[in-house]
Amino acid sequence: MLLRNVFLLLLCLVAVSPSRADDGYRLWLKYDRIANAAERQGYVRVAQFVASPGNTPVLRAASAELTRGLGGLLGQAVPAVPSAGSRTGGIVLRVDAQASAAGQPLKAEGYRIFSEKNNLVITGRTDRAVLYGAFALLRQVQTRQPLAGLNLSSNPRIDFRMLNHWDNQNGTVERGYAGSSIWKWYELPERLDPRYTDYARANASIGINGVVINNVNASARYLSAEYIGKVAALAGVLRPYGQRVYLSVFWAAPKVLGGLATADPLDPQVKQWWAAKSDELYKAIPDFGGFLVKANSEGEPGPQDYGRNHADGANMLAQALGRHDGVVMWRAFVYKAGSDDRFKQAYEEFQPLDGKFDPKVLVQVKNGPIDFMAREPFHPLFGAMPKTPLVLEVQLTQEYLGFATHLVYLGPLIKEVLESDTYAKGPGSTVARVVDGSVDHHALSAIAGVSNIGSDRNWTGHPVGQANWYAFGRLAWDHELSPAAIAREWTRMTLTTEPAAVRTIADMLGQSRSIYVRYTMPLGLHHIMGESIHYGPQPWLAKAGRPDWTAVYYHKADSIGLGFDRTATGSNALALYKPEVQKQWGDARTCPLNYLLWFHHVPWTQKLSTGRTLWNELATRYYTGADSVLWLQKQWLAARPALDPALYADVAARLQTQRKEALWWRDACVLYFQTFARQPIPAPFAPPTRSLADIKQLVQLYQLK
Amino acid sequence: MLLRNVFLLLLCLVAVSPSRADDGYRLWLKYDRIANAAERQGYVRVAQFVASPGNTPVLRAASAELTRGLGGLLGQAVPAVPSAGSRTGGIVLRVDAQASAAGQPLKAEGYRIFSEKNNLVITGRTDRAVLYGAFALLRQVQTRQPLAGLNLSSNPRIDFRMLNHWDNQNGTVERGYAGSSIWKWYELPERLDPRYTDYARANASIGINGVVINNVNASARYLSAEYIGKVAALAGVLRPYGQRVYLSVFWAAPKVLGGLATADPLDPQVKQWWAAKSDELYKAIPDFGGFLVKANSEGEPGPQDYGRNHADGANMLAQALGRHDGVVMWRAFVYKAGSDDRFKQAYEEFQPLDGKFDPKVLVQVKNGPIDFMAREPFHPLFGAMPKTPLVLEVQLTQEYLGFATHLVYLGPLIKEVLESDTYAKGPGSTVARVVDGSVDHHALSAIAGVSNIGSDRNWTGHPVGQANWYAFGRLAWDHELSPAAIAREWTRMTLTTEPAAVRTIADMLGQSRSIYVRYTMPLGLHHIMGESIHYGPQPWLAKAGRPDWTAVYYHKADSIGLGFDRTATGSNALALYKPEVQKQWGDARTCPLNYLLWFHHVPWTQKLSTGRTLWNELATRYYTGADSVLWLQKQWLAARPALDPALYADVAARLQTQRKEALWWRDACVLYFQTFARQPIPAPFAPPTRSLADIKQLVQLYQLK
């Protein structure tokens, strides 16, 4: 009878297990009960309690996450206790100043998980390290890895792992496609949206430890007393999850807020204003991270307005931070009109300043020389500023990669950049090793992802956008990880653990970025998207605010051929790279096709390594790229049985839109470039059924007020 | 043993009953199980099934809502069946072309619920009427009214009950404070966010039957073929819930989209363009509702650009709609510079056009002559255009009423306007009866609320904002309802049914708007808020784009007194009203204090009916108003035991902000006006501890880029 009752209890537990549609809010921290009872029991045996001194907010967050996560996964309460005492079969959190792994002392944030007296010990030199270890252990269970006898350790390879929010004070998000900002400025500091905590949990689970909360096109208001109070309230939510708050600053703040006559970095009053402001910030936010600065770029004010240079400005801010433990991240995204090739402008402005920056200054460089195109060669500044720690800035929000309507997993893009070899100190001087400081032995290292997070219920609009947030954090922690492994990991934690479905979806993710490149900007084409909205195709764009905001500036299509000659016969931007790199890209006959039109103006009739002429290869890539979306749809359908129905329907619908718009890109680009190549669409492909004029109207629509 | 098992089953049902925090998404359609078993059983007896022919999408929506709602409330499945047959104790849906109530035929959307052969019959002449009846029956259960022997019927008093969304094509919402737009244009038409359906359910539950989905400052893109496809997809979601889609139109669309040289309403090509566009719209959306137009207002183009008037423009559009069943709602919110008082400008432009409009045209008039102030006299156009059906436009989003941070229930404001007597056809010619058409016997009647809905999880930012959406719908359906009864009804459905808590909260709601008026713009002060953002106080604002965008234009403070003389000795705007109204407001000694400074420039030393001088009364209202927020906090705390903890905390935090900002308003206004009155803050109130200069900085902050 007892059995029968237990059976009944189980019955109704099953009956009430979460049947409601998955709205994506829980991200990869779902913690749904493990369906397989035997599998579950295996974990139960080694996770019967969580022992934590809990003497810091971070440790309390760690044990709370473990009891919540394990409680959900194991379908039974996992109690938190102050210490294991003589108990075994549990998890022990331990901060140990001497903690080491494989004989090496761990980094401050590195963790180790090992077995001791039939308990699993999560240890590290700081409570933050233990927090990261706690999430690592949960990940093991979420991905169904064994815990028994576990012995793993991990150090972050990069110190500052940053999210940059381009969130505006009015609640909009520049280049955001997932609703409005998650920060509710009118409610702060009194109301702390519970969402802030879930955001902090998600960041901590992937090792992100710094958050720039406002747009680099910054408002001065964040530096006002009232807003510092609001920012401090947010910092209080992020702190227990190991994240420090940073602010983007408006260079002219001393004038706008301080009423000074100038913002000249060498002006004593200006220096004093910033020093006083820093003190005010640290009084409110003792662990304030520092400043991110976009200066003398795209109309933002800066030190050059006063005849000073970027180093003058950055160093002044660094000195203003003074004794406080903060840094200045100064963006190198500048392109003053003048030089014949925007590709070279950041290099020309910043490379000569190498060695002139204060030790507290890092220079933040976008992954490529233009602007977050779907594929770019690595930025020539990487490897060219050995005396300056460089921050790698990648974009997670899909400004140029289909907004929130196209399925594009960015892991491979980020990895491609990290693996690029600058040859700065010989072979193996990859961007990753320049950024993590190992090439030039820098004390500071940092990487930044421009957030794709908004107020949409599922945080990122496209459900797969979550994978980009996730992959960035994982690669920021360890750039040796493979994007494919991360894709599988994310899929298991977020969508399904069914092995075939995991393979299918990870395969979709792995292919998705090259598919997008193929139907939008193949062979090294770049910056041919629509004006200002950056959504659809507009290769015919010939007039804009500045020449380098047009498309023709970049593709240089003419009756002879296509592409931007950046060799010695052209802008010679190629010369900014080390000889080994120049060798890779310098010869049109041997240059990898993915970079071909980045560096060469190639005749339409030129035979490529594929055996096709440029025109035929171009058309082929547009057609096969657009048709690959049909493959994505087929794959997604195949995974359907393993997926939550609401989530399946969401992505399936977005894939329909993606297919429609892939055809839009294809038709726009082949019809436009055909007017130069004057050749037919190659067999077996059928020419577009609409005219170039029809297509142009589609794009104009998005420019309408 | 069976008993024991049943007991166990009950146990775990209880154990799993929704314990998660209420995030407000479900609005007033929560359908949580009725806790009291006896009470529940009472309803079970009369709601054992839902019988519906289900032969239309609307009827299917009605029975789906009943089975969902009753299933939740009764804690057991309520099956839907095609017909009752011989069964009793259930609910029967019946469309009956002859349906009547109390001997009177019902209106097309009027419903009746009555008992027949031990079943409850919900009937009406159309399936939409039955849908409204279904929600009315659910409301009975949600508010714990008896069903047995129920016999009620209700007709809507106004035909078109509209929500106007000021949502922009880029996802922002003009004057929206609850996140971004709920419409996801880049996802449409392929993806239909499930949220659209819940939005439609909520509207249907309060009788809203028309939705203008885009901002009156309209983009032309909604009239493009691509966007018409997107709009049609939305219309498909709203249709089963009895709602028609309308579009705000950009007057110059024939030029921008059609490539015409002009948008002159009398130009044959322009007429033809609009006629063709209407045909295109009705082909895609057979029940398209029509157009809303903001023309020649605040920089928008319009017929006056071509020397035509509003009637020329509106009538051209009406004729373009031609044979289609649609209407034109033409906004009277215009105030061309020139006249000495903005108060009079809409009247001067529109009143002379009375009788010149096509029968398909309605003129949409804001509730007051200025712009959605916290309190305004009713707009003088009401009662002054007997030959034209007037739409009453009220604002639900709290542009001038504290955004989403202040608790302000707008029921009393809307009711105050509806009850205002225009004396157009003698006493009792209330705005309500002008609008519902009964004063002038119009064939069409309409009312519009400017939506406060956004993508925030709880739809309206402030949880009590939901009550404003709710109250608007209920009053639009029946303007005889009392705001207090609606507040109780909403509270029971949304927050708690505990009687004392319902009384407490309904009392808070009832007082909240007068409290807001007292600490912001008492005694008829108006338009003294911050420039452009309209949030904080800025009574000192003396320079702006135009004089009537400043504050001093309206309060006219000087050494003698305060207020705008709109009597014969001043702008004489008062003369726009009927003599009986002029009598109410025309004499400063007898004018109700709530309207005093709307019409009179009153000496600081003038004794008012309260026995206090103007200055002392003004200061007293600011101080008592700000202190009343403490009362709101006390009330909310008292209701705490009956409330969901997350919801309690949310509102409690917002009330803290409200208190802080009430003091901000109080200090700003008393310190500023004191510079004119040159009198002390009256006892027992303590002077502000901060200076006017400090306060001014707070507001300037919100104007910073």
Automatic annotation (TrEMBL), chains A, B:
Homodimer. It comes from the Bacteria. This is Xylan alpha-1,2-glucuronidase. Residues 1-21 form the signal peptide. Gene3D superfamilies: Alpha-glucuronidase, C-terminal domain, Chitobiase/beta-hexosaminidase domain 2-like, Glycosidases. Keywords: Carbohydrate metabolism, Glycosidase, Hydrolase, Polysaccharide degradation, Signal, Xylan degradation. It holds the Pfam family Glyco_hydro_67C. Residues 27-137 form the Alpha glucuronidase N-terminal domain. It catalyses: Hydrolysis of (1->2)-alpha-D-(4-O-methyl)glucuronosyl links in the main chain of hardwood xylans. Its EC number is 3.2.1.131. Belongs to the glycosyl hydrolase 67 family. InterPro entries: A-glucoronidase_C_sf, GH, Glyco_hydro_67_aGlcAse, Glyco_hydro_67_aGlcAse_N, Glyco_hydro_67_C, Glyco_hydro_67_cat, Hex-like_dom2. Residues 460-683 form the Glycosyl hydrolase family 67 C-terminal domain. GO terms for molecular function: hydrolase activity. The keyword Signal applies. Residues 141-459 form the Glycosyl hydrolase family 67 catalytic domain.
